[in-house]
Amino acid sequence: MSLSKEVEILSNTPLFRGVELAKLKLLAFMSEERVFHDGETIMRQGEEATAAFVLLDGKADVFVGTGSDEQRVASIGQNEMFGEMAILSDMPRSATVRASGDVRALRFDKSALLQLMRETPNMALEVMRSLANRLERTTRELGRARSDLALSRGRHG
Q1: CB-side exposure of 130: number of CA atoms within 13 Å?
Q2: Which of 62, 70, 106, 147 is 20 to 30 Å from 51 at the Cα level?
Q3: Cα–Cα distance for residue pair 13/112, rounded to 1 Å
Q4: Tens digit of pLDDT for each residue in 10-65?
Q5: CB-count burial class (<10 Å; 0-12, 13-18, 19+) for 74
Q6: What string of H, E and C letters represents the secondary structure of the chain?
Q7: % of the chain beyond a pLDDT of 70
Q8: Residue 66 to residues 1, 95, 116: CA-CA distances in angstroms?
Q9: pTM reported for the whole predicted model
């Protein structure tokens, strides 16, 4: 993929809106295009976070837990970033992400992404918004799941 096409995709990614063109070019130049096939693991829960990704094409599923206890909790679509949470918290990955069909993604090295966030307050703000929205969605879904569980126990209790 050409550098100009990668810059165009990055400019359409909510996280990078408001980032000046020169910095987007630098980020695109520092990224690496990766291809993952159906079912292939992009990142694994518990591993060290060395990079974040933006999905160019395809879809990926997010899982938490291990082995037979693994649960699908979300899907990731085109132009969405993932993997940034572990980079920002400097913690191991909180989930496993697998390709659902063939996927093309841009991989961003941790140090390059952190440097860009330091230099670009708008981007740092968008990252905070993105994480806050994800937390709100997860909290809402957890509340719904607890409510469903309580109803289920009431019917079978």
Answers
A1: 19
A2: 70
A3: 17
A4: 888 777 777 788 888 888 888 899 999 999 999 999 999 999 998 988 999 999 98
A5: middle
A6: CCHHHHHHHHHCCHHHCCCCHHHHHHHHHHCEEEEECCCCEEECCCCCCCEEEEEEEEEEEEEECCHHHCEEEEEECCCCEECHHHHHHCCCCCCEEEEEEEEEEEEEEHHHHHHHHHHCHHHHHHHHHHHHHHHHHHHHHHHHHHHHHHHHHHHHC
A7: 98
A8: 35, 10, 33
A9: 0.80
Q: Which two tokens stand for residue 105?
A: 């993604």
Residues in the chain: 157
Tokens 């309580």 belong to 150
Residue type for 52, please?
A: A
